[in-house]
Amino acid sequence: MQLIKSVSELRSVRSKLAGTVGFVPTMGYLHEGHLSLVRRAAEECDHVIVSIYVNPTQFGPSEDFEAYPRDLERDMSLLEPLGVDIVFAPTDDEMYPPGFQTYVEVTELTKVLEGASRQGHFRGVTTVVAKLFNMVQPDKAYFGQKDAQQAIVIRRMVADLNFPLEIVVCPTVREPDGLAMSSRNTYLTPEQREAAPDKARALSAAEKAYMDGERSSGRLREIMLDVLNSEPLAEVEYVSVADNETLQELDGPIEKPVLLSMAVRIGKTRLIDNIVLGGTDRG
Ligand code: AMP
To answer: What is the value of pTM for the model shown?
Structure first.
């Protein structure tokens, strides 16, 4: 496994790889969620490239860019046994050299949900992912259902800009109590950590109601809010029942696959979670 920090070296090593390349972009501080994507890439592709880069352009001015956990050595030791060929961990100067001024924007899908709460977030995500796709030139790229809107936005970008690669979305990996794994879970105090699985409980309650025949989008929203509001440490930012393709919020009865999603603050930590109902639920 080779650690590469410059684009020129990445290009040179990449050009010598024969066969298919699977790519897993991450911000590091890896957990089982990330590793599940790496394992899937290793199963499906001849070579695996993982990027580790905390991308400044996807963080708002009041967000946690500086505080975001980083530990490259630990990440490398987790990736080594999985048969990863290259870990690409570029510097900010390598990614955004002086004079940088070109951005990629998916205009409509990013107006709602995370995009509405985090101004400019997806512009940063699509820009860095487009750059990484150009650098790595993968055959397949692996993303988590945990960030459902991100996966939908990136699929759109790949289709719209004719990137010659396939996007694979993998299921959300959860802790035994249901909490979706996230590098940001490390911010939680023990008391907050106990409160954090409320999001998974809210999603399960809505899923159960759906399985029992509930098809009212408003009712599913209420069911999730009831669970979240019963947790005093959780401050709900949004709860959504939306079309799983267009991400438009639903008013009436559910007929097509729906994305149930939410963002909740526990103390200063902002956590998200989701499930899909009525379709091929990948998480
Ligand atoms: P991040 O490092 O948070 O940018 O995540 C890198 C990739 O890992 C993204 O495609 C995420 O959706 C995915 N990911 C993060 N957490 C999980 C999880 N709990 N289960 C599955 N995939 C995840």
So the answer is: 0.97
Q: How many CA atoms lie within 13 A of 46 on its CB side?
A: 9
17 and 52 fall within a common domain? yes
What residue's CA is closest to ligand 1, atom 10? 143
Ligand 1 atom nearest 150 alpha carbon = 12
Q: What is the share, in percent, of the chain residues with pLDDT greater than 90?
A: 98
Give the per-residue pLDDT at 279: 75
Helix-, strand-, coil-residue percentages of the chain, each rounded to 5: 40, 20, 40
Q: Which residues pair with 274 in a beta bridge?
A: 261
pLDDT interval class at 280 (50, 70, 90)? low
Please identify, by atom number, the ligand 1 atom nearest to the C-alpha of residue 180: 19
| Residue 48 placed within a domain | yes
Domain that includes residue 155, residue range: 2-170
- Write down the pLDDT at residue 282: 45
Query: β-strand 166-170 against 140-144: which pairing, if any?
Result: parallel
Same domain, 157 and 188: no
What is the number of structural domains in the chain? 2
